[in-house]
Automatic annotation (TrEMBL):
UniProt protein name: SET domain-containing protein
Domain SET stretches: 81-304
Organism: Chrysophaeum taylorii
Any single GO BP term: methylation
Record GO terms (molecular function): protein-lysine N-methyltransferase activity
Record key words, sorted: Methyltransferase, S-adenosyl-L-methionine, Signal, Transferase
């Protein structure tokens, strides 16, 4: 049962950012804009300032007209609102543009409520079910993503003045701005060669095409792809005490991702009315700060413990520092192993298949992977007359078995590294990367470099561990 592999894989982000109305103050706080692309972005920003500011302001006015308190002034029983919408933000490592973001308008303390939004302002499946435009197209059994995608497309078609969500839809990015890998063309995808992200991208694209076929009379593939780019990159799964809903939550969805953040979004469910003739109050979406934030600091939430591959596939960015980064490596069974049938039966009884994929992390071996490999590498002599199913694989079976496990792991990682083309020559001055490479190229290079690092670290750790085991055995002999 020799194993072979076939082979998924963000960085912390603090921010440098600008906000139209306080750009000078922020520029000073942020230490300037370092990259050429960031400078070019600022020039474009300056040109587009008036229109960008107008769309932001329309959104804020719309939210305020619906009772969402976003004013920098105190109101009746309301403190000044703590967040402000920034037109452009940058991640801290290479100054990559991260689009709009939310900043602390004033110092924020841990656990403070940052935003509170009534549910009826969100785009949800319930809203799609109530939409007269979608009658006959969306019903209770429609998938939640599909229902919201159709709602988004139909509302975008109505235009900013006619749609209830017009001011919100007007600030949503284009597919190209989000740039998830499933929207890349073949020449861009070439930069993902060797990465499991490529197979995930192709599979996602095929799924999107197949699902669009059913709705091709209602929208073009471009509209469909845009709606799903929006949903995958900003829909939030809201969990309350009794329900769970997927929603596009205006304003809250301007919060950018940091894998180090633990700010949280909750669904505060409204109590049932006391009398049946009373109106039912609306549920609310509330965001709380995970820590204190300084004035003008960007506020983050975590989109989940996502690998760079998942981030690039769904959100269009990868991070240099990402504690949740991993590379999926597949281990397969050798059919000429004398214990093949027994191992296969045991693997199936444990809910596994003969070809299993496990995430490889930079700093640890996943327990499930070790258990699977111990079982897969066990030999008749290590079984000492027992059956494959009789052994406990949660601990070391024997030194020989553990050495085989580490060797298999190292070989699988080496094979995965060989599948990447040789790394591109380094740009002489890293500041020039933004001039010579497109954003997609830079993101693909980030992804591949981060995956290679993980695989190489795993090989080094496996060799180190093998040497330790050999040394302990020699001492004991
Ligand atoms: C939920 S939206 C956040 C608001 C978004 N920046 C905007 O302008 O609408 C998610 C998108 O923001 C960007 N983003 C979020 N966090 C990021 C990060 N740490 N680095 C780079 N881009 C990020 C990506 O384009 C992602 O698809």
């Amino acid at each position: 049962f020799v194993l072979r592999e076939s082979s998924s894989s963000g960085g912390g982000v603090t921010s440098r950012m600008s906000e139209d109305s306080w750009s000078a103050e922020l520029r000073q706080a942020s230490g300037g804009f370092e990259t050429e692309e960031a400078r070019a972005f600022m020039r474009r920003q300056a040109k587009g300032d008036a229109s960008v500011r107008a769309t932001n302001e329309r959104l804020i006015e719309w939210l305020q007209s619906k009772g969402v308190w976003l004013s920098e002034l105190s109101g009746w029983n309301e403190p000044p609102h703590s967040l402000a919408l920034a037109t452009s933000t940058f991640d801290d490592v290479e100054g990559e543009d991260a689009g709009r973001g939310l900043l602390a308008r004033r110092a924020v303390v841990q656990d403070m409520e940052l935003v509170r939004m009534p549910r009826y302002l969100c785009m949800t499946k319930d809203a799609a079910l109530e939409s007269p435009t979608l009658k006959g197209l969306v019903n209770v059994s429609t998938n939640e993503y599909v229902a919201i995608a159709l709602l988004l497309i139909s509302e975008a078609e109505k235009g900013i003045l006619s749609s209830f969500w017009g001011p919100y839809i007007a600030v949503l990015p284009t597919t190209e701005e989000i740039s998830p890998t499933f929207s890349w063309d073949e020449s861009d995808l070439a930069d993902l060669e060797g990465s499991p992200c490529l197979a995930a991208t192709r599979s996602m694209r095929a799924k999107l095409r197949a699902e669009h076929a059913e709705f091709s009379h209602h929208c073009s593939f471009d509209q469909w792809e845009w709606a799903f780019s929006i949903l995958f990159s900003r829909a939030i799964r809201l969990t309350g005490p009794t329900k769970e809903i997927l929603a596009l939550v205006p304003y809250v969805d301007f919060i950018n991702h940091s894998p180090f953040s633990s700010s949280y979004v909750t669904l505060a469910e409204a109590p049932e009315p006391l009398f049946f003739w009373d109106d039912k109050p609306d549920d609310e979406i509330v965001v709380y700060a995970d820590r204190s934030y300084r004035k003008f600091e960007q506020v983050f939430i975590s989109y989940g413990p996502k690998s760079n591959s998942d981030l690039l596939l769904l959100y269009g960015f990868a991070l240099d520092r990402n504690p949740f980064n991993s590379v999926a490596v597949q281990f397969g069974a050798a059919t000429d192993d004398p214990l093949y049938d027994e191992k296969l039966a045991f693997a199936i009884s444990a809910g596994r298949s003969p070809n299993e994929t496990f995430p490889i992390y930079a700093d640890r071996f996943a327990d499930e992977m070790l258990q699977y490999l111990r079982m897969s590498c066990v030999t008749p002599s290590q079984l000492k007359g027992r059956h494959v199913r009789d052994l406990d694989y949660s601990t070391i079976v024997s030194v020989d078995n553990e050495l085989a496990v580490l060797d298999t792991l190292a070989q699988a990682c080496e094979a995965a590294i060989e599948r990447y083309p040789p790394p591109p020559p380094p740009v002489p001055n890293p500041r020039d990367r933004n001039i010579f490479l497109t954003r997609k190229q830079r993101m693909a290079q980030r992804l591949v470099a981060s995956e290679r690092r993980i695989l190489q670290r795993t090989i080094d750790a496996a060799i180190r561990k093998s040497n330790e085991l050999e040394a302990t055995r020699a001492l004991a002999a």
